[in-house]
Specification:
This protein is an alpha/beta fold and 78 residues long. It contains three helices and four strands; from the N terminus they run βαββαβα. The chain has helices at residues 11-20, 46-56, 70-75; strands spanning 3-6, 26-30, 39-40, 60-63. The longest helix is centred in the middle third of the chain and has 11 residues, at 46-56. It is globular, with a radius of gyration of 13 Å.
Length: 78
């Protein structure tokens, strides 16, 4: 059963990584904080996201990616 953790370099995502890093069917992504053995993914890029999901064919996708800039989030609700 393949699992993808999108945003695995953040607080919540990294905890998923820490507890499951030995599992060969778990895949972890990063966007800006490069990590060894993680897959680069811009979660806002629909084509890149679709390609990764097609290639891995996960049973579960956990989205922990977020925008940590509170001020920006309050100004831009999109």
């Amino acid at each position: 059963m393949s699992v993808i953790i999108i945003g695995a370099t953040g607080l919540v995502g990294y905890e998923f990584y820490r507890q499951n890093k030995e599992k060969t069917d778990w895949f972890f992504t990063y966007n800006s904080q490069k990590m060894k053995d993680f897959i680069h993914l811009d979660a806002s890029d629909k084509e890149q996201l679709k390609k990764m999901i097609t290639e891995i064919n996960p049973r579960i996708i956990i989205l922990t990616a977020s925008l940590p800039n509170v001020t920006l989030c309050e100004k831009d609700h999109s």
